Amino acid sequence: MPEGPELHLASRFVNEACGGLVFGGCVEKSPISRNPEVPFESSAYRISASARGKELRLTLSPLPGAQPPQEPLALVFRFGMSGSFQLVPRDMLPPHAHLRFYTAPPGPRLALCFVDIRRFGHWDLGGEWQPGRGPCVLLEYEQFRENVLQNLADKAFDRPICEALLDQRFFNGIGNYLRAEILYRLRIPPFEKARTVLEALQQRRPSPALTLSQKIRAKLQNPDLLELCHSVSKEVVQLGEAREAKMANHLCLSMLCNLGQFLPLSGPSSPPGEGKFLDIVVAKWTRPPHLSGGSWTSGTQRGQVPQEEIQGTAAGT
């Protein structure tokens, strides 16, 4: 189930994948979706995204001279249990693509799709964050901490800490797996009263005798619950970025392995008519041209590709 870090990664994906693309035409909604129609049509517009907690805002911005004249339109998405964005060829739409934005010619014929298998996801027109949600644990840490500690009299904190952590008025972006990780790291019993756990943080003050570096070190080594809400979310984002980079490398290697059968071996001892990936100069993948103006850059020679990536590609991972 997507939580704050996944929404943040999704917004980054949209910005990187769509940064160099021009979209055009109407926004197409699946006939089975119960979400509202998106009354937007433009001959040329761009798409950008931002995230806050468990919400993602998508902004459609017409380019100068686009027809018919349109004001920018923003939609706010909540992903439910299975929502995600995918950029795919226009003629290969995935199942359950409930909202589709198509690129304009003469560029690559692609579609940005909001895919939601279980259909619990939702979008609203207007671009306003949902009222009542607190500051984002990932991007608005100081406001998030202040909002919790100044409102401990709220009846939400009469509940067990495992329940209070899911209250988006105070923990916007925290969900099931994040609360489990945070409570496990601190060895806090999940049914401890939330107010009892959090009131102790109001009294937590570093010793005035400590230097600034010592205070920072102590904070990193002994984070409290609110600090972990922020830092564990950041860890998930970093893991997601590393995974995307690894998948990009595997994509590069897989594509070149497929190309290798058509390329002659470069070594003098190579059997005639064969081709092997490791005997060619490998193009190092940075980002394909339709993703933020990236490119293929040559330079990785035979023997410089990490063996674990080669094995992973050969194994089909």
UniProtKB/TrEMBL annotation:
UniProt-listed InterPro entries: FPG_cat, FPG_N, H2TH_FPG, Ribosomal_uS13-like_H2TH
CC annotations in GO: nucleus
Pfam families: Fapy_DNA_glyco
UniProt organism field: Equus asinus
Any one GO BP annotation for this protein: base-excision repair
EC number: 4.2.99.18
Residue span(s) of domain Formamidopyrimidine-DNA glycosylase catalytic: 2-121
Family: Belongs to the FPG family.
EC category: lyase
Region named Disordered: 291-317
Protein name as catalogued: DNA-(apurinic or apyrimidinic site) lyase
Gene name per UniProt: NEIL1
SMART domains in the cross-refs: Fapy_DNA_glyco, H2TH
One function term, GO molecular function aspect: zinc ion binding
Entry keyword set: DNA damage, DNA repair, DNA-binding, Glycosidase, Hydrolase, Lyase, Multifunctional enzyme
Compositional bias per record (Polar residues), positions renumbered to this chain: 294-304
Gene3D superfamilies named among the record's database cross-references: 1.10.8.50, MutM-like, N-terminal
